[in-house]
């Protein structure tokens, strides 16, 4: 019984409860900012992983006793 009272008109003297209007631009800005931050974090992680992999390969080469561990890039 009380649920029908909540769904119907408010009692006299009460203001009707209305949902606040959300601005779609604010929602999009937050989503875009989150997406940009996520892309930046992924980019930094990818760069860091490549850099650490290269350093690990260099250390493996040096620890094996080799003296010529420089990466030779092919001519283009």
Extract low-pLDDT stretches: none
Fraction of helical residues? 55-70%
Give the H and E element order.
HH
Q: How would you describe the shape?
A: rod-shaped
Secondary structure: number of strands: 0
Overall average pLDDT: 79
Task: Note the total helix count.
Answer: 2
Strand content: under 5%
The whole-angstrom Rg is 31 Å
Structural class: mainly alpha
Report the major sheet.
none
N-to-C CA distance: 82 Å
Give an overview of the whole structure.
- The chain is 61% helix and 0% strand.
- The model has no long low-confidence stretch (mean pLDDT 79).
- It is built from two helices and no strands.
- It starts with a helix and ends in a 13-residue tail after the last helix.
- With 76 residues, the protein is an all-alpha fold.
How is the topology of this model organized?
Blueprint: H1 2-7, H2 24-63
Essential attributes:
transmembrane; mainly alpha; 76 residues; membrane; transmembrane helix
Q: Summary?
A:
The protein is mostly helical and 76 residues long.
């Amino acid at each position: 019984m009380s649920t029908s009272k909540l769904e119907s008109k408010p009692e006299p003297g009460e203001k009707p409860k209305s949902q606040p209007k959300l601005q779609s631009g604010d929602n999009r800005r937050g989503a875009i900012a989150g997406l940009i931050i996520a892309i930046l974090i992924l980019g930094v992680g990818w760069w860091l992983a490549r850099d650490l992999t290269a350093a690990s390969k260099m250390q493996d080469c040096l620890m094996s006793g080799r003296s010529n561990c420089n990466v030779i890039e092919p001519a283009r």
